[in-house]
Specification:
By secondary structure, the chain is α/β, with parallel strands linked by helices. The protein has 2 domains: 5-161 and 315-438, FAD/NAD(P)-binding domain (3-Layer(bba) Sandwich), CATH 3.50.50; 167-310, Elongation Factor Tu (Ef-tu), domain 3 (Beta Barrel), CATH 2.40.30.260. The chain contains 12 helices and 16 strands. Strands 10-11-12-13-9-14 form a 6-stranded antiparallel β-sheet. Helix 1 (13-24) packs parallel to helix 10. The two termini are 24 Å apart.
């Protein structure tokens, strides 16, 4: 007897997480990925689960929203998080991965299943009638499929604009003007710090705010998402904005001199070998020539070799509160169709994994005639899925954050984040245990 087929469109984090859950639940999965034949404005190849904006999956600390979300996904059986840990590069209290190794590991995990078929270089422009489908085409959905999706849902497309940071060769960094260390004494020597004095910073700031950017004449709107703000836009919000953001010098002292800097640029390993580093928080839309000129004004990067320049690209998402249930299913469709990943309105790598996991699990349960898994509102997962499906007013993509959770007024502010964590894990564990018992 042949297995029920589910189509997954898109081989990013959401699509691969959903596919692995469906395969584990006994379904056959046919995945379509248009790359590398048709690339996007940010992807460089055809690998599955390719990370583009950064190689960091953010904090693993339990008192952070990102750390809590990871623990929730572990409880829910995420397949991508363990693979990410296997491909981790040193990054202090964050989980960062070697992009190439991670992509290969994800593809291997999928191809180990006999019931998995991968169609690379095939762009999907419409859905197959009557076939259960998960749409996970990502924020860089092709124009033709975005047009189809707009017609399918009756909604206009929405856009926000995202940017990725440059990568430099480690060998080209002037180590006489740099040192290893982490802010606030955390993370050991995982970050490469490039200090600047006040005069150097002011010259850099002046060049940055006056630098030439890429003209966005092909974009219908010019909306910027704060979670991936181009550094030049951040700078234009005030001369000290960067010093309170990615260039904050707090907790950093040069071990060679014992001095604190006026501002510090931090670089993070891009791969296990440590031969290339990305500029943390330096997503940009400057022209390539201006990136070379302006970023070379950072003293330690005066002779930097740029292995990849930053770029800006259009991100697409749907009006999820009008279209999706809290399990990412398209409303009022007889055939099960789910939309997962950043196109659904979640923002971030781990958030995309979460949406793929929930969509894949919900699809499997629907096809088996089972009730969906209960997701407590006190968890980041439950709160974020509720936000995506019910947000009133001006809907914008959302990261994991404690502001989504029900307030705990009886807990002192200093202990509140840990209390959020403890409550979420307790409630989710209870929900999963109860669901398994009832099954």
């Amino acid at each position: 007897m042949s297995k029920q087929k589910v189509v997954v469109i898109g081989g990013g984090l959401a699509g691969t997480e959903a596919a692995l859950r469906l395969l584990d639940e006994g379904f056959a999965v046919e995945m379509f990925e248009m790359r590398p034949k048709r690339l996007t404005g940010a992807h460089e190849g055809g690998g599955l689960a390719e990370l583009v904006c950064s190689n960091s999956l953010k904090s693993t600390q339990p008192e952070t929203a990102s750390g809590l979300l990871k623990e929730e996904l572990d409880l829910l059986g995420s397949r991508l998080l363990p693979l990410a840990r296997e491909c981790a590069v040193p990054s202090g209290s964050a989980l960062a991965v070697d992009r190439e190794q991670f992509s290969l590991a994800v593809e291997r995990a999928l191809c180990e299943h006999d019931d998995f078929i991968l169609h690379k270089n095939e762009e999907v422009t419409s859905l197959e009638d009557g076939v259960p489908t998960i749409i996970a085409t990502g924020p860089l959905t092709s124009p033709s499929f975005a047009d189809y999706l707009a017609k399918l849902t009756g909604q206009d497309r929405l856009f926000f604009y995202d940017a990725i940071a440059p990568i430099v060769s480690f060998d080209s960094v002037d180590m006489d003007k740099a040192y290893f260390g982490g802010r606030y004494g955390k993370g050991g020597d995982d970050y490469l710090n490039l200090p600047m004095n006040k005069e150097e910073y002011e010259a850099f700031y002046d060049a940055l705010v006056n630098a030439e950017t890429v003209h966005l004449h092909n974009f219908e709107k010019r909306e910027l998402f704060d979670g991936c703000m181009p550094i030049e836009i951040m700078a234009k919000r005030g001369s000290d904005t960067m010093r309170y953001g990615p260039m904050r010098p707090v907790g950093l002292k040069n071990p060679k001199t014992g001095e604190s800097a006026y501002a510090v640029v931090q670089l993070r390993k891009e791969n296990v070998a440590g031969d290339c580093y990305n500029l943390v928080g330096f997503q940009t839309n400057l022209t390539y020539g201006e990136q070379k000129r302006v970023f070379s004004m950072i003293p330690a990067l005066h002779s930097a070799e740029f292995l990849r320049y930053g770029t800006m690209h259009r991100n697409t998402y749907v009006k999820s509160p009008e279209l999706l249930t809290d399990r990412f299913r398209l409303k009022n469709f007889d055939t099960p169709v789910y939309i997962a990943g950043q196109i659904s309105g979640v923002e971030g790598y781990v958030e995309s994994m979460m949406s793929g996991l929930i969509a894949g699990d919900a699809m499997a349960r629907e096809l088996k005639g089972q009730s969906p898994l209960s997701l407590p509102r006190t968890t980041i997962t439950g709160a974020l899925t509720e936000y995506v499906s019910t947000c009133a007013g001006d809907f914008q993509p959302m990261n994991a954050n404690f502001g989504l959770l029900p307030e705990m007024h009886t807990v002192h502010k200093k202990q509140r984040k840990q209390a959020y964590h403890d409550r979420a894990i307790q409630d989710l564990t209870k929900s999963i245990t109860q669901q398994n018992y009832n099954a």
